[in-house]
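User: Is it possible to get a 3D structure for a protein together with its bound compound? The compound here is guanine. I've pasted both below.
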Amino acid sequence: MAKIISGKELSARLKAEMAAEVATFPARYGRVPHLAVILVGEDPGSVSYVTGKAKASAEVGIRNTTIRKPATITEQELLDIIAGLNADDGVDGILVQLPLPRHIDEDRVIAAIDERKDVDGFHPLNVAALWQKQSCTLPCTPKGIVKMLKTAGVEIAGKRAVVIGRSNIVGLPVSKLLLDENATVTMTHSRTRDLAEETRRAEILVVAIGRPKFVTADMVSEGAVVIDVGVNRDPETGKLCGDVDYAAVAEKASVITPVPGGVGPMTICCLMENTIECFLRRF
Ligand code: GUN
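Assistant: Yes, that's possible. Here is the predicted structure of the complex:
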Protein backbone atom coordinates (compact mmCIF):
# COMPACT_ATOMS: atom_id res chain seq x y z
CA MET A 1 0.00 0.00 0.00
CA ALA A 2 1.22 3.46 -0.87
CA LYS A 3 2.14 6.12 1.62
CA ILE A 4 -0.54 8.82 1.43
CA ILE A 5 0.56 12.46 1.28
CA SER A 6 -2.15 14.41 3.08
CA GLY A 7 -2.32 17.88 1.58
CA LYS A 8 -4.92 18.63 4.19
CA GLU A 9 -2.53 17.99 7.08
CA LEU A 10 0.49 19.62 5.45
CA SER A 11 -1.50 22.72 4.50
CA ALA A 12 -2.94 22.98 8.02
CA ARG A 13 0.61 22.99 9.42
CA LEU A 14 1.85 25.56 6.90
CA LYS A 15 -1.20 27.79 7.42
CA ALA A 16 -0.60 27.76 11.18
CA GLU A 17 3.01 28.87 10.58
CA MET A 18 1.83 31.62 8.23
CA ALA A 19 -0.79 32.76 10.73
CA ALA A 20 1.92 33.21 13.36
CA GLU A 21 3.96 35.26 10.89
CA VAL A 22 1.02 37.37 9.71
CA ALA A 23 0.12 38.13 13.34
CA THR A 24 3.38 40.09 13.59
CA PHE A 25 2.61 42.22 10.50
CA PRO A 26 0.37 44.92 12.01
CA ALA A 27 3.15 45.91 14.42
CA ARG A 28 5.82 45.73 11.70
CA TYR A 29 3.99 47.02 8.64
CA GLY A 30 0.85 48.64 10.00
CA ARG A 31 -1.55 46.19 8.37
CA VAL A 32 -2.12 42.61 7.17
CA PRO A 33 -1.94 41.39 3.55
CA HIS A 34 -5.08 41.92 1.48
CA LEU A 35 -6.20 39.49 -1.22
CA ALA A 36 -8.93 40.45 -3.69
CA VAL A 37 -10.71 37.57 -5.43
CA ILE A 38 -13.04 38.10 -8.37
CA LEU A 39 -15.65 35.47 -9.14
CA VAL A 40 -17.66 35.79 -12.34
CA GLY A 41 -20.79 33.66 -12.57
CA GLU A 42 -21.92 30.81 -10.39
CA ASP A 43 -20.10 27.70 -11.60
CA PRO A 44 -20.33 25.39 -8.54
CA GLY A 45 -16.66 24.38 -8.76
CA SER A 46 -15.51 28.00 -8.91
CA VAL A 47 -17.84 29.01 -6.06
CA SER A 48 -16.39 26.23 -3.94
CA TYR A 49 -12.78 27.25 -4.73
CA VAL A 50 -13.49 30.89 -3.93
CA THR A 51 -15.17 29.95 -0.65
CA GLY A 52 -12.13 27.83 0.23
CA LYS A 53 -9.84 30.76 -0.51
CA ALA A 54 -11.84 33.05 1.78
CA LYS A 55 -11.80 30.44 4.56
CA ALA A 56 -8.04 29.93 4.27
CA SER A 57 -7.48 33.70 4.29
CA ALA A 58 -9.41 33.94 7.56
CA GLU A 59 -7.33 31.12 9.06
CA VAL A 60 -4.06 32.80 8.11
CA GLY A 61 -5.19 36.31 9.07
CA ILE A 62 -5.14 37.64 5.51
CA ARG A 63 -7.81 40.16 4.63
CA ASN A 64 -10.01 38.79 1.84
CA THR A 65 -12.35 40.72 -0.39
CA THR A 66 -14.38 38.52 -2.70
CA ILE A 67 -16.06 40.40 -5.52
CA ARG A 68 -18.91 38.41 -7.08
CA LYS A 69 -20.22 39.45 -10.48
CA PRO A 70 -22.86 37.90 -12.72
CA ALA A 71 -21.81 35.90 -15.78
CA THR A 72 -23.29 38.70 -17.90
CA ILE A 73 -20.58 41.17 -16.86
CA THR A 74 -18.82 42.71 -19.86
CA GLU A 75 -15.11 42.34 -20.41
CA GLN A 76 -14.70 46.09 -20.01
CA GLU A 77 -16.51 46.10 -16.66
CA LEU A 78 -14.20 43.34 -15.46
CA LEU A 79 -11.13 45.20 -16.74
CA ASP A 80 -12.33 48.32 -14.91
CA ILE A 81 -12.60 46.41 -11.63
CA ILE A 82 -9.06 45.09 -12.11
CA ALA A 83 -7.77 48.59 -12.89
CA GLY A 84 -9.33 49.80 -9.63
CA LEU A 85 -7.67 47.00 -7.64
CA ASN A 86 -4.32 47.63 -9.39
CA ALA A 87 -4.49 51.28 -8.32
CA ASP A 88 -5.56 50.48 -4.76
CA ASP A 89 -2.49 50.61 -2.49
CA GLY A 90 -4.36 48.63 0.12
CA VAL A 91 -4.65 45.56 -2.15
CA ASP A 92 -1.63 43.23 -2.36
CA GLY A 93 -2.98 40.32 -4.38
CA ILE A 94 -5.56 39.97 -7.16
CA LEU A 95 -7.01 36.67 -8.32
CA VAL A 96 -9.60 36.25 -11.05
CA GLN A 97 -11.16 32.81 -10.70
CA LEU A 98 -10.98 30.84 -13.95
CA PRO A 99 -12.60 29.82 -16.19
CA LEU A 100 -14.36 32.99 -17.29
CA PRO A 101 -17.50 33.09 -19.44
CA ARG A 102 -16.75 32.62 -23.13
CA HIS A 103 -17.48 36.21 -24.13
CA ILE A 104 -14.53 37.38 -22.00
CA ASP A 105 -10.94 37.08 -23.25
CA GLU A 106 -9.15 35.33 -20.39
CA ASP A 107 -5.67 36.24 -21.66
CA ARG A 108 -6.60 39.89 -21.80
CA VAL A 109 -7.97 39.81 -18.26
CA ILE A 110 -4.91 38.06 -16.83
CA ALA A 111 -2.57 40.48 -18.60
CA ALA A 112 -4.51 43.40 -17.11
CA ILE A 113 -3.57 42.41 -13.55
CA ASP A 114 -0.56 44.28 -12.17
CA GLU A 115 2.10 41.55 -12.32
CA ARG A 116 3.26 42.50 -8.83
CA LYS A 117 -0.22 41.62 -7.52
CA ASP A 118 -0.57 38.47 -9.64
CA VAL A 119 -0.83 35.89 -6.84
CA ASP A 120 -1.66 33.12 -9.36
CA GLY A 121 1.57 33.59 -11.30
CA PHE A 122 -0.45 33.61 -14.53
CA HIS A 123 0.59 37.03 -15.87
CA PRO A 124 2.76 36.74 -19.03
CA LEU A 125 5.65 38.46 -17.24
CA ASN A 126 5.52 35.93 -14.39
CA VAL A 127 5.23 33.05 -16.86
CA ALA A 128 8.22 34.36 -18.82
CA ALA A 129 10.21 34.75 -15.60
CA LEU A 130 9.38 31.16 -14.60
CA TRP A 131 10.60 29.79 -17.93
CA GLN A 132 13.77 31.89 -17.72
CA LYS A 133 14.40 30.75 -14.14
CA GLN A 134 14.15 34.27 -12.79
CA SER A 135 12.50 35.14 -9.51
CA CYS A 136 8.72 35.28 -9.90
CA THR A 137 5.43 34.36 -8.30
CA LEU A 138 5.07 30.61 -8.83
CA PRO A 139 1.67 29.23 -9.84
CA CYS A 140 -0.04 27.76 -6.78
CA THR A 141 -0.82 24.19 -7.84
CA PRO A 142 2.66 23.37 -9.21
CA LYS A 143 4.28 25.02 -6.19
CA GLY A 144 2.08 22.95 -3.87
CA ILE A 145 2.95 19.75 -5.72
CA VAL A 146 6.69 20.29 -5.36
CA LYS A 147 6.22 21.11 -1.66
CA MET A 148 4.29 17.87 -1.16
CA LEU A 149 6.97 15.82 -2.91
CA LYS A 150 9.74 17.39 -0.84
CA THR A 151 7.86 17.03 2.43
CA ALA A 152 7.22 13.36 1.68
CA GLY A 153 10.97 12.93 1.19
CA VAL A 154 10.65 12.13 -2.53
CA GLU A 155 13.95 12.67 -4.32
CA ILE A 156 13.15 14.47 -7.59
CA ALA A 157 16.62 14.97 -9.09
CA GLY A 158 17.44 12.47 -11.81
CA LYS A 159 13.99 10.86 -11.73
CA ARG A 160 11.80 10.20 -14.75
CA ALA A 161 8.78 12.43 -14.23
CA VAL A 162 5.78 12.17 -16.53
CA VAL A 163 3.12 14.86 -16.57
CA ILE A 164 -0.29 14.20 -18.12
CA GLY A 165 -1.96 17.44 -19.26
CA ARG A 166 -0.46 20.61 -20.71
CA SER A 167 -2.61 23.40 -19.28
CA ASN A 168 -1.23 26.83 -18.45
CA ILE A 169 -2.43 26.39 -14.85
CA VAL A 170 -0.89 23.01 -14.06
CA GLY A 171 0.68 20.85 -16.78
CA LEU A 172 3.10 23.35 -18.29
CA PRO A 173 4.31 25.03 -15.09
CA VAL A 174 4.60 21.82 -13.04
CA SER A 175 6.73 20.37 -15.85
CA LYS A 176 9.03 23.37 -15.59
CA LEU A 177 9.27 23.17 -11.79
CA LEU A 178 10.12 19.46 -11.98
CA LEU A 179 12.72 20.24 -14.63
CA ASP A 180 14.17 22.90 -12.32
CA GLU A 181 14.39 20.19 -9.64
CA ASN A 182 16.47 18.20 -12.16
CA ALA A 183 13.89 15.57 -13.07
CA THR A 184 13.82 14.24 -16.63
CA VAL A 185 10.39 15.40 -17.66
CA THR A 186 8.04 13.96 -20.28
CA MET A 187 4.98 16.06 -21.09
CA THR A 188 2.04 14.03 -22.34
CA HIS A 189 -1.44 15.00 -23.50
CA SER A 190 -4.53 13.91 -25.39
CA ARG A 191 -2.56 13.40 -28.62
CA THR A 192 0.21 11.32 -27.06
CA ARG A 193 0.60 7.99 -28.85
CA ASP A 194 0.44 5.04 -26.44
CA LEU A 195 0.09 7.08 -23.29
CA ALA A 196 0.28 4.01 -21.03
CA GLU A 197 3.71 3.20 -22.41
CA GLU A 198 4.89 6.68 -21.36
CA THR A 199 3.20 6.66 -17.93
CA ARG A 200 4.57 3.22 -17.08
CA ARG A 201 8.06 4.69 -17.37
CA ALA A 202 7.25 7.32 -14.75
CA GLU A 203 8.94 7.29 -11.38
CA ILE A 204 6.94 10.41 -10.59
CA LEU A 205 3.55 10.73 -12.34
CA VAL A 206 1.61 13.99 -12.19
CA VAL A 207 -1.93 13.74 -13.55
CA ALA A 208 -3.82 16.89 -14.48
CA ILE A 209 -6.14 15.92 -17.28
CA GLY A 210 -9.58 16.46 -15.72
CA ARG A 211 -11.10 13.04 -16.42
CA PRO A 212 -12.44 10.92 -13.56
CA LYS A 213 -10.32 7.86 -12.74
CA PHE A 214 -8.49 8.15 -16.08
CA VAL A 215 -5.24 6.64 -14.82
CA THR A 216 -5.71 2.96 -14.12
CA ALA A 217 -3.37 0.56 -12.32
CA ASP A 218 -2.00 -0.90 -15.57
CA MET A 219 -0.68 2.57 -16.49
CA VAL A 220 1.44 2.86 -13.34
CA SER A 221 4.69 1.13 -12.42
CA GLU A 222 5.25 -0.59 -9.12
CA GLY A 223 6.69 1.94 -6.65
CA ALA A 224 5.79 5.09 -8.62
CA VAL A 225 4.98 8.37 -6.88
CA VAL A 226 1.53 9.48 -8.08
CA ILE A 227 0.24 13.03 -7.76
CA ASP A 228 -3.44 13.47 -8.65
CA VAL A 229 -4.47 17.01 -9.53
CA GLY A 230 -7.96 16.10 -10.76
CA VAL A 231 -11.16 17.23 -9.11
CA ASN A 232 -14.08 15.47 -10.75
CA ARG A 233 -17.44 13.98 -9.94
CA ASP A 234 -17.46 10.21 -10.15
CA PRO A 235 -20.17 9.54 -12.77
CA GLU A 236 -21.21 6.38 -10.90
CA THR A 237 -21.32 7.59 -7.29
CA GLY A 238 -21.55 11.37 -7.75
CA LYS A 239 -18.75 11.72 -5.20
CA LEU A 240 -15.60 13.79 -5.66
CA CYS A 241 -12.82 11.83 -7.31
CA GLY A 242 -9.46 12.47 -8.95
CA ASP A 243 -7.99 11.69 -12.35
CA VAL A 244 -6.51 8.52 -10.87
CA ASP A 245 -8.32 5.29 -10.02
CA TYR A 246 -7.16 5.71 -6.45
CA ALA A 247 -8.02 2.35 -4.86
CA ALA A 248 -6.30 0.28 -7.55
CA VAL A 249 -3.33 2.62 -8.13
CA ALA A 250 -2.61 2.95 -4.38
CA GLU A 251 -1.87 -0.81 -4.39
CA LYS A 252 1.05 -0.25 -6.77
CA ALA A 253 2.32 3.25 -5.98
CA SER A 254 4.87 3.96 -3.25
CA VAL A 255 3.40 7.41 -2.59
CA ILE A 256 0.03 8.84 -3.65
CA THR A 257 -2.11 11.91 -3.05
CA PRO A 258 -5.82 11.52 -2.24
CA VAL A 259 -8.78 13.44 -3.71
CA PRO A 260 -10.14 15.28 -1.85
CA GLY A 261 -7.51 16.31 0.71
CA GLY A 262 -4.45 16.14 -1.51
CA VAL A 263 -3.31 18.74 -4.04
CA GLY A 264 -6.40 20.99 -3.58
CA PRO A 265 -5.64 22.21 -0.05
CA MET A 266 -1.99 22.74 -1.01
CA THR A 267 -3.00 24.98 -3.91
CA ILE A 268 -4.91 27.23 -1.54
CA CYS A 269 -2.08 27.12 0.97
CA CYS A 270 0.37 28.31 -1.70
CA LEU A 271 -2.04 31.07 -2.67
CA MET A 272 -1.79 32.31 0.92
CA GLU A 273 2.00 32.11 0.70
CA ASN A 274 2.02 34.02 -2.60
CA THR A 275 -0.23 36.71 -1.13
CA ILE A 276 2.18 37.16 1.78
CA GLU A 277 5.13 37.29 -0.66
CA CYS A 278 3.41 39.98 -2.78
CA PHE A 279 2.65 41.93 0.39
CA LEU A 280 6.23 41.72 1.72
CA ARG A 281 7.73 42.77 -1.62
CA ARG A 282 6.01 46.13 -1.20
CA PHE A 283 7.87 47.05 1.97
N1 GUN B 1 -9.28 27.74 -11.71
C1 GUN B 1 -8.78 26.50 -11.45
N2 GUN B 1 -7.61 26.61 -10.80
C2 GUN B 1 -7.35 27.92 -10.66
C3 GUN B 1 -6.28 28.66 -10.07
O1 GUN B 1 -5.30 28.11 -9.56
N3 GUN B 1 -6.41 30.00 -10.12
C4 GUN B 1 -7.46 30.62 -10.70
N4 GUN B 1 -7.47 31.94 -10.72
N5 GUN B 1 -8.46 29.98 -11.25
C5 GUN B 1 -8.41 28.63 -11.23
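The longest helix spans residues 263-280. The two ends are 48 Å apart (CA to CA).
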